[in-house]
Design goal:
The complex is a heterodimer. By secondary structure, chain A is an all-alpha fold. Chain A has one domain (about 15-505). Chain A is about 70% helix and about 5% strand. Chain A has 20 helices and five strands. Chain A has helices at about 15-35, 40-60, 80-100, 120-130, 135-150, 155-175, 180-215, 220-230, 235-250, 260-265, 270-295, 300-320, 325-345, 350-375, 395, 400-415, 420-430, 435-465, 475-495, 500-505, and strands spanning about 70, 75, 380, 385, 470. A three-stranded antiparallel sheet of chain A has the order 4-3-5, with no helix packed on it. In chain A, helix 3 runs parallel beside helix 14. Chain B is mostly helical. The longest helix of chain B has about 40 residues, at about 545-585. Chain B is globular and about 85 Å long. Classes of the chains: A mainly alpha, B mainly alpha. At the A-B interface, helix 7, helix 9, helix 12, helix 17 and helix 18 of A face strand 1, helix 5, helix 6, helix 24 and helix 26 of B.
């Protein structure tokens, strides 16, 4: 018996253009690091990064009406995937603008001049004094972005795993690269890496069990196998629970959330701004595809699992945020609660539930990114002023910053006429049917609790005497543009929610 | 867009507020003029709109304007629709009319404040939000206005941020209002779930076919909302603290307009309350308790603004009682709301004028004999006083008398409570009157009382005129009852006794109150500058009848405990139990721990517990 003839896999390159563009650009970035002199690197890297992100965005938009399974079944190119890709790319551009900011910190950008230098060492001081900046962040960032846009397209468990790691590995590094409070940053990176590896292991183990039960890796085939043979359902179910846990870790749902406050706090704020939105959007895209396509036949089994995690997330997120004193940790716990709201929408296993969750992801992403961007502007001589007590009286010191942040907090709280209200309304009303209505009630109650801690920050900004050593940096156009884009989108989605609702409606459902 | 467009009504003050806030210090010089002009322009639009309504036949007295389609999800659609009908028409006149007078007054009152421009921006913001609240044609838009007035009120209570007490008061108002807002949110959601719509016409048309208990729950949720905004029992205590804000704010927001939003809400939802006896009874009980409670608090306060705040609480209690009576009471509640708007704004501004002349001292024990040095303020305050205690022919006489009558028609107990309230009102208002304007001067050293400038006294005179004639005018000249009939469907009931007895009886009770106050605080009596300790009753009233203690026990305490518990569970129990499991299960806990960094390990173990929990959930569901 001779060797098996090799058949070329059929790859739709045009459909995958956004991922390829970014991947090639990232590789190019690595070459630039190797061969271009220090003085030119930053400019070139910025050119490559923004250029590739814009080209990728343009390619993604051309795919807007696709609805097909491509790349031999490994990837699905459908409305929800493209919508999330476009959102992810816009957020990546916003994140890159924030990373490129050099005016906020008097010493340079938000990243350590050289990560290998020991914190507090003479080397570090020297690098800082020379004003060197680290440019490896750009290829790393592009790898992460290409992973993130692959994630919601992944149509089999292995591709999904690869996308997950492509997104996560560069992020582990970027988290540890903060210029200020480097020990905290490195500790966060290590924690994130160790726990992330643990979650990946659970994911892989789950994928193996699903393969054992069904003999398939492609989501559609898994669904067929589950429908035809019920003898292996228990094995399939254990596998599904483990895969879901791996993804729940990524979205930061409780009780798999404990990394997120530490990491959000330790990471450079520009990175926090990007990852708080991007990992959530990308990973929820994968969760939804897995649940709605691969596990559609097991709906009655996974619904209670998702409901439990949703309720725990909302309770833990809302209540823990109440007692935090660090503003980044407040936003981290708030994102745990928001993960719960998104999962509540997913409980409605129908197009409305999908639309609700997509609306929530799209609107929340911009609010969260902008909120962290504002956090990076309020500083004391020692770096960012992240303690809420330091934000007291900001309303008088910098009325515009305080007003923008108030607007974002109100959107997070979900007041009417903000995008947060639209999202909560669409998401929660879709799940109002049968027993999942109980989860909706829990969501409504916890969002009432959550309003308190957003408002507490507003209160302290406007009604407490100002602290003297706190200043609000006047950022360069980069950060202003970043915040402006997010606030603009949030405003439109709040006053004319039909804009986002129409997009989501056009996105339709998953291809199967 | 026509002249009487509802959007224009809301838009003018909103744009003005935005201009003042965005231009910042650059508009300091003319900010107060812009703010005042915006309010007056809005009043002009309101007058034009109501005149247009009057010119229409009774059946078509409504102006609807859909500004834009807010959102559509499936077959649920919410429009931003504003409508002026008989009820909101009355309110827009009150809001913009009294609002404009208070803007004018504030030009003088705030003339020394460096943040005067910001003050006018907030006042404009308030006017816009309040107009949105009453013009909204669906409950969701009403909710936006409801939150908007809360925000403006919050900003204005805490306007003098340098006063610690002002910040605390602002926070307290906010928290108690959140409890109320939760009621409104719950009501809106119940309506959405029950009727698939939140617009007034649809909800009111279908409420009859909803299950009775649902209607009752919606009514109770609306009542909770009303209690928060209108400072009714048990959410009343923020109103007294809200007096920390500048006095024009107390007059506009915490007397004439915003605090009556709860009454508006119940009256607007009359189709819902008509169907639920339980809901109406609850409203009646809340109103009765508050009207007595506020009056008793009014007796004990030496701070002139807090005495008036107790009185406001009590008068809104009357309105709540009236709307709780059902169709016999709605019209009279709105009637009293209007007359109260005039005379209470008048008295608050009068109190502000007194404070202005007394170096911002609010303690009535430091007043006395001011009638000579502040003749105009005294004259206007006197008319307000006669109006509130219900002396004919002043405004309060007509409106309160109608409420007492309607209360007796429904229940002897409610009637008796309303009557008793009238007596106490006469007593505490006479006390304020005597302590401030009569008796001997007890001024602190260095205080030289003087009359306020014309920009402050002219609004006082206008409001005093309204306090004098509005009762007769609204009842007999304009015929408010007929005007509101298409919306509120008033009926009349049977008095349990001869109607001829009511008027003399009420006047006798009022007279007893005035006479008692005369003996206690009249001209022959020495009023100590230091407040005497007083009996247990007075001390309880000074402590707002335990309002704060109640909040601590019922609202704030349990909330804090619940949070603490949940956080402890998350941080301690979960972690600790995980550690316990680890130690017990493996016996290698010690060695295991030394190999790992502490926190990451416990995080990972929490994840393991999480896996076990979700796995268990999946399988337990499967088994069941």
């Amino acid at each position: 018996m001779g060797p098996q003839p090799f058949t070329m896999p059929h790859i739709e390159y045009s459909a995958l253009a956004p991922v390829f563009v970014l991947f090639v650009a990232a590789t190019l970035g690595v070459l630039i690091e190797a061969f271009v002199g220090r003085t030119l690197r930053r400019q070139l890297q910025l050119l490559v990064t923004f250029g590739s992100l814009i080209i990728a965005l343009a390619f993604a938009i051309t795919q807007w009406s696709s609805h097909a399974v491509v790349a031999e079944g490994a990837l699905a190119l459908d409305g929800p995937a493209v919508l999330l890709q476009i959102t992810l790319l816009v957020i990546a551009i916003v994140g890159a603008l924030l990373m490129a900011e050099t005016k906020a910190d008097p010493a340079g950008d938000a990243f350590a001049p050289r990560t290998s230098a020991i914190p507090g060492s003479d080397d570090e001081r020297e690098f800082t004094m020379r004003g060197w900046t680290q440019t490896e962040i750009w290829p790393l960032f592009l790898f992460a972005v290409s992973g993130s846009i692959l994630f919601p397209m992944a149509n089999d468990l292995l591709t999904m795993f690869i996308a997950l790691e492509m997104l996560s590995l560069p992020l582990y590094l970027l988290v540890g690269m903060s210029r200020r409070r480097r020990l905290l940053s490195q500790e966060a990176a290590l924690k994130y890496f160790v726990l992330g590896a643990f979650a990946s292991a659970l994911f892989l183990f789950g994928a193996a069990l699903i393969y054992a039960a069904s003999g398939e890796l492609t989501l559609g085939a898994i669904a067929n196998a589950a429908n035809q043979d019920s003898s292996t359902t228990s094995l399939m179910l254990i596998g599904a629970v483990l895969v879901l846990v791996g993804l729940f870790f990524k979205v930061g749902a409780a009780p798999f959330h404990q990394w997120s406050p530490d990491v959000y706090q330790g990471a450079p704020t520009a990175i926090t701004a990007y990852m708080s939105a991007a990992t959530k959007i990308a990973a929820f895209g994968a969760v939804m595809r897995l649940l709605y396509v691969g596990l559609q036949g097991l709906q009655w089994d996974w619904q209670p699992v998702v409901a439990t995690v949703a309720v725990i997330s909302m309770l833990v997120g809302s209540s823990a945020a109440l007692v935090q004193t660090n503003i980044k940790r407040v936003l981290a716990y708030s994102s745990v609660a928001h993960a719960g709201f998104i999962m509540t929408a997913m409980l409605a296993v129908n197009p409305r539930g999908l639309a609700g969750a997509l609306t929530y992801l799209v609107t929340y992403g911009f609010v969260s990114t902008a909120a962290f961007a504002v956090v990076s502007l309020v500083r004391s001589p020692a770096g960012e002023a992240n303690d809420i007590s330091q934000w007291a009286g900001l309303g008088r010191k910098s009325p515009v910053t305080a007003a923008v942040f108030t607007f974002l907090l109100l959107a997070l709280a979900g007041l009417p006429l903000t995008s947060g209200f639209t999202a909560k309304f669409v998401a929660l009303s879709s799940a109002w049917n049968g027993w999942t209505g109980g989860v909706v009630i829990a969501a409504v109650l916890t969002s009432a609790v959550a309003a308190f801690f957003y408002l507490r920050i507003i209160v302290s900004m406007y009604f407490s005497p100002a602290k003297d050593d706190i200043s609000v940096t006047v950022p360069s156009t980069l950060t202003r543009l970043a915040i402006g884009v997010c606030v603009g989108i949030t405003t439109v989605f709040g006053f004319a929610p039909q804009a986002v609702l129409a997009l989501v409606e056009h996105a339709g459902v998953f291809v199967s | 867009m026509s002249l009487f467009s509802p959007a224009l009504l809301v838009g003018i003050p909103l744009v003005s507020a935005a201009v003042l806030l965005l231009l910042g210090k650059r508009s300091n010089a003319w900010g107060h003029f812009l703010g005042t002009t915006a309010s007056i322009a809005s009043f002009g639009v309101a007058v034009a709109a109501v005149m247009h309504l009057v010119s229409q036949p009774v059946g078509s007295r409504e102006i609807n304007q859909t500004v834009w389609n807010w959102f559509t999800v499936g077959n649920f659609s919410v429009d931003v629709t504003l409508s002026i009908d008989a009820l909101s028409g009355v309110f827009i006149l009150l809001i913009t009319g009294v609002g404009s007078l208070i803007h004018i007054y504030s030009i003088g009152y705030m003339s020394h404040d460096e943040n005067r421009r910001k003050f006018f921006a907030y006042l404009n913001l308030f006017i816009a939000a309040m107009l949105l609240l009453v013009l909204a044609n669906n409950f969701l838009l009403l909710y936006v206005g409801w939150e908007g007035v809360g925000l403006a009120s919050f900003l204005l209570i805490g306007f003098w941020q340098h006063k610690n007490s002002a910040s605390t008061a602002a926070n307290k108002a906010f928290i108690l209002n959140r409890v109320g807002d939760f009621g409104l949110a719950a009501a809106v959601m119940l309506m959405f779930v029950t009727f698939g719509s939140v617009s007034f016409p649809t909800v009111f048309a279908h409420v009859g076919s909803a299950p009775g208990h649902t209607t009752t729950w919606i009514a109770l949720a609306l009542l909770l909302a009303a209690c928060g905004k209108s400072a009714q029992f048990p959410l009343q205590s923020w109103l007294l603290d809200a007096m920390e804000g500048p006095t024009p704010v107390s007059a506009l927001i915490h007397a004439a307009t915003m605090v009556t939003a709860g009454v508006y809400l119940v009256a607007r939802s009359n189709a819902i309350f008509d169907l639920t006896q339980t809901g109406r009874t609850a409203v009646m009980i809340v109103g009765t308790i508050t009207l007595l409670m506020g009056a008793v608090i009014g007796i004990a306060k030496d701070d002139i603004k807090k005495a008036l705040a107790g009185s406001t609480m009590s008068q809104i209690g009357y309105m709540m009682l009236a709307v709780g009576l059902g169709p016999v009471g709605y019209v009279w509640a709105i009637f009293h709301l209007l007359t109260h708007g005039f005379f209470k704004a008048n008295m608050f501004l009068g109190a502000g004028s007194v404070m202005h002349g007394m170096n911002d001292d609010v303690n009535m024990r430091h007043y006395g004999a001011l009638r000579k040095s502040m003749a105009i303020t005294f004259g206007t305050f006197l008319i307000g006083y006669l109006a509130i205690i219900g002396v004919p022919p002043f405004a309060g006489f007509f409106s309160k008398d109608e409420i007492i009558k309607a209360a007796f028609e429904q229940s002897v107990w409610a009637g008796a409570a309303a009557l008793l309230g009238a007596g106490i009102t006469a007593y505490y208002m006479s006390r304020v009157m005597f302590m401030t304007f009569f008796g001997k001067a007890r001024w602190q050293s260095g205080v030289h009382p003087h009359e306020s400038p014309a920009v402050m006294t002219i609004p006082l005179i206008v409001l005093a005129l309204l306090s004098a004639v509005a009762g007769y005018g609204l009842l007999h000249v304009i015929n408010l009852e007929e005007w509101l009939t298409p919306l509120l469907h008033p009926t009349t009931g049977e008095l349990p006794f001869n109607e001829a007895l009511l008027l003399p009886g009420t006047l006798a009770v009022v007279a007893v109150g005035v006479v008692l106050a005369w003996f206690a605080y009249g001209s022959t009596h020495e009023i100590p500058v230091q407040a005497p300790r007083g009996n247990a009753f007075i001390r309880a009233a000074r402590a707002d009848l335990g309002g704060d203690a109640f909040n601590q026990e019922v609202v704030i305490g349990p909330g804090e405990r619940l949070t603490a518990t949940l956080v402890a569970v998350d941080e301690k129990v979960l972690d600790a139990s995980v550690m316990g499991i680890a130690d017990t299960f493996t016996g290698l806990g010690g060695r295991f721990r030394s190999l790992q960094t502490g926190f990451t390990r416990s995080y990972a173990l929490v994840m393991v517990v999480g896996v076990i929990i979700v796995g268990a959930v999946a399988f337990l569901v499967r088994l069941s």
